Amino acid sequence: MTSAVSPARALVCRGCGAEFPLAAQHACYECFGPLEVAYDADALKKVTREQIEAGPDNIWRYAALLPAGQDPADRITLNPGMTPLVSAPALAAELGMTGALWVKDDSANPTHSFKDRVVSVALSAAKGLGFTRFACASTGNLANSVAAHAARAGVPSIVFIPSDLEQGKIITTAVYGGELVAIEGSYDDVNRLCSELVETDEFEDTAFVNVNVRPYYAEGSKTLGYEVAEQLGWRIPEQVVIPMASGELLTKVDKAFSELVEIGLVDAPANGWTVFGAQSAGCNPIAVALHEETDEIRPVRPTGIAKSLNIGDPAAGLYALEAVRRTGGWMDYADDDEIRDAIRLLARTTGVFAETAGGVTTAVLAKLIKSGKLDPSKETVVYNTGEGLKTLDAVASLVGPTHTVKPSLRSVREAGLLG
Ligand SMILES: *Cc1c(COP(=O)(O)O)cnc(C)c1O
Ligand SMILES: [Zn+2]
Fold first, then answer.
1. 161, 185, 217: which is the final residue of a domain?
2. In terms of domains, do 226 and 147 share one?
3. Nearest Cα residue to 278 out of 385, 119, 389
4. Interhelix angle for 115-128 vs 141-153, to 10°?
5. What pLDDT is attached to residue 2?
6. Ligand 1 atom nearest 315 alpha carbon
7. Chain-wide mean pLDDT for the chain?
8. In-domain check, residue 198
9. Closest listed residue to residue 102, CA positions, set 328, 282, 352, 339
10. Residue 105: pLDDT over 90
11. Which of 169, 185, 197, 224 has a CA that sits 20 to 30 A from residue 271's CA?
């Protein structure tokens, strides 16, 4: 039986440890540090594998480990999750890996990115907190997901994006009919503006999924850790490679693995697990801080085709650094040509067509093997977080028909296609 009570206990400051009640608050009143959901440890320890396995085929099978949505009637959701964990032996062979390689393909979610997970949890929490309008500051996929969730729930939405996003992201958001506001600026400008809007009386009724309800939003990413472990037969993989924008997803996959061990749902792996982070060369502030052995993450003005990852001032960057250092991992970044090549490599070897973020992750996997940072003999999971159809421009000039012939046998023969 799933308990209808949330196991969440409080919001805790990641900086100073101060605790606050479960409300719409995202920064600490003491030190302005970011807040994170803390759970009742005893409640989590009661959760069993059998209970999870008997749950629905989506993220809500983990409701007893999440801060919202325990009662299905309280959910605002498109029921994302339980996306395929694809075995990738051909990609492994091409990269010189002898260990098992898997692609966790989150393009299979309802709006085709991992953002459906975080939005479902954030908006279910927002509903419980009494909000009546949904909003976000987005690099594209988040806007898409918030607009779709709001449409399904019949709740008004207003989403904010940088005006230079890919057509594929704008159309897939606009079609849902909510307000879509393009800001002439970078994502970081959009985010700053939303932080101001959220303080106004006019937006008092509005949940910005990644601003005032961010602690709940962030927890949705844990399901990408739980699912991989469950799909591997309740086992944590030895190595994971994760794309980073704010760095939140990476920290939460690591948190999910820790929780699974703490509450006894998986055995602690003999040598732990190792977390690797991937960015693009056009927006690499977290990876550069790691390379320079500093905790000072210098904001950048993002450029390049991996727009979904273009956060120049990453909110969870410090925590991503901490997770990667603690687990003995590494971070690297890939330039636009490497990203385009990697999108095609992944497609050609696995049948998964990734958006630019998946190209980043695949390209960085290859780099990590080359530099000896990632062990090619260990079991590895790479996360594809988005869908190639949303960023067609990235590869449009590189692919097309391999032949163009007349509709006749002779033409086909002359093209050398009959062998
Ligand atoms: C948002 C996003 C990410 C990264 O999310 P963070 O939690 O901010 O690091 C990765 N991939 C895709 C496709 C995204 O849209
Ligand atoms: Zn604090």
1. 217
2. no
3. 385
4. 50
5. 46
6. 8
7. 96
8. yes
9. 352
10. yes
11. 224
